[in-house]
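Record type: monomer structure entry
Structure origin: computed from sequence
Chain ID: A
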Amino acid sequence: MLSFICILVSSLFTSPSIFEQDQQKADSLQYEVSVTLKLIQVYVSDKDGNPVQDLTKEDFLIYDNGRLITVTDFEIHSLELPPEKETEAPPRMSRKFFLLLDAYRNDGLGLKKARTLALHFIETQVHPEDELGLLTYSIGRGLVLHWPLTTDHEKIREAVKTIKLFPGITVGSYGGSGVTSMDEAVDFTKSLNDFAVSLRYTPGYKHIILFSAGLPRALFASDDPRLRYEHERLAKELASSSSPIYTVDTQGERDLVQGRELKGDHSLRRLAALTGGRHFTNVDYQETISEDIQNSTGNYYVLGYYVEEAWDGKYHEIKVKVKRKGVRVQAQKGYFSPKAYAKFSKLEKRLHLLDLARNPSPQFDLPQDMPSISVPWRDSNSSAVLHLSEIVPADLEEILGNKAELFTLVYDDEGVLTAEGKKEMDFTESPPGRICTYTFFPQPQGRYDYITILRNKKTGAAAKAASTVVFPENQQSQPALSGPVFFVPGRGSLCLPMEIESAEGKSKTKEFNLDAIAPRIQGSISPLVFDLDKNTAAMYAVFGLKKEAKEKKALEFVFVPRLRSKTTDETYPLRHTERNDILTDSENTIVLELELTPVPAGKYVLEISVAGTSLLQDLIFSQDVFIR
C-alpha cells in the first residue's frame, strides 16, 4: 500500500472507549423512534430507449426488502417540461454529479481536453438546482475531494480551471521507490472504493463522470490478481451505492497508436457497464458526450415513502415495477439504513469528519458553530499562521459529553487538505469556563482555510469553526507588521497548544507559546477569539514586528482603531495608547492598549488602520467580535 495516497481516507483514530450500558440503551431508544422519508430515483424508458414521461404515482409499485410499500410522495423531472415557477417548492431530489479528473492515468493533452469537456458540460447542461462535486486523483496526493456536492456551480467551474494537475507516469516503478505499476493501479482502485463507501448514505443517484485513459490491459492479465479483485469490488460498491460511472477516454483516437496491452479502454468500459453508466470512447466529442449524459440523467421520477429507521446500517434491497407494459425500469438497487455513530468503522468516522469539514450541508446533523481566528504572524525569529479556536463548555453541553476529540484541518486554495492535527479532550472533571486551543504552523504564501472540529467520541455530535487566512508574500527588505492578537484582562482561559503536521510529513507545528506574546500585566489575561463582555473597559492589541537586523532607527507607525457595527455600519472610534512600558516575552512585538466605550450589544468588526513611512502601503487589520 502506498503511504501517500491516504490524504482523503487515512484514519487518525484511536480505539473507541467503552461506555456505560444504560447510556447506550438511551441512545438506542433515541434512534429507534425516528421516522424518515425515503426518496427513490427511477428512470423509465420505452423499447427504443426514449424516456416515458406521462406516468402517475399509481403506475408504480415499490418493494423494500420484498415488502410492498405505499408511495406517498411523487415528482417528475423532465428536460422537456417548462421550468418550474419560482413560487413552487424546490424539487425534493435534484441530480448529483461528481466530476473526477484523473491525473494519474493521463498525459498533459488528455488533462487539457478533460478540463475543456468538464467546463462545457457545466456551462451547457447543468441546471441551477443540480448539485456538483469535484475530485482529482494523482500520484502523491491520492484522491482529493476539492468540493463536496454544491449548487454553487461557479466554484466548481473555477476549480476545474485552476487546480494544478500534473500528468502521471507509470512505467513499472515510480521515482525509484520500488512501487510497481500494479501497486499504483490497486491503490487508485481502492481509493475510489473508499469514496464509493462514503456515498452510501447520500440519497438518490450520484453520477460520477471519470475523465481518464483507464488502467492498462496488461495489469488485468497479470498473474497478480489484486487489480481484478479490487476492480470488481469497486464496481459492486458503486452499484450498491447507486453511483453509476460515466467514463470518458481522454486518449481518444490516440489509443490507436498504442499497443493493445497498454490501452485502458477495457477497464473504462467494464466499470461503466457494471455500474449502470456509459462509456465514451473519445473525449473530443464534447457536444455528443455532454448531450448523451444529459439525456441519460435528465428525465426521472422521484418516489417517496416513510419508514421507521432501525439505525442498524443494513442494506435494503429496492425493486421498482411499473404497471404499464413494454417499458424498461432503471431504479436504485437499494439503500443503506443509517447507523449510530458508535458503530461507525474507522473509515466511516474519517469520512464523517471530512464531510463536516467541507460540506455546508453534511449528510448527518449540522455542526454547532464555534469561534476561531487565523492570522499571519511574523517577527524576526519566526513566520507562521497563528490559529486560535475557543471552546465554551457551557455553550456545548450536548456535544462535549465526557470525552471528545478536537481536529484542526488546513486546506489550500485548491481545496487540498495540506495539514491536520488531533487532540484528545477529557471533560470527566468539571471543565474551565473557557478553553483556547492554538497552533502555530509555517505556511508558504497563499490562501488557506483553517477548520476546527470538536466531536463527541461517542455520539459524533460536533461543533465547527472555520476561518480563512491569506499569508502574504514576504518582503525581505521591508519591515512587516502582522497579527494582531487581542487580549482581554480579567478573564481567564485555559490555553492549550495543538500540534498539526503537513499531509506529506514535511513540516510540523513550530514551537510557540501563546503566553510569550501576552502583555505582562497584573491579574489574568486571555486571548479574544470572538465574545466580548460589554462591560470590558480596555484590552490589548499585540502586533508581531519583523525588521531587518541592520535596522537601527526606531520604526514609527500611526494606529487608528475603531469598532464598526455589522448591523448599522456605524463606526465608533477607540482611544488607544502605544504601551512601550508593557512588554511581552517576545521583543519583536508592539503593544497597544485600547480604551473601549459603551456600545449596543451585537456583532462588530474591530478594525485597526496602520500607516507609516517604512511601510509599502497603509494596512488595515480586522477581526469580528460579538459584544454581549
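Annotation 1: Residues 31-92+300-339 form one domain.
Annotation 2: DSSP finds ten helices and 34 strands in the chain.
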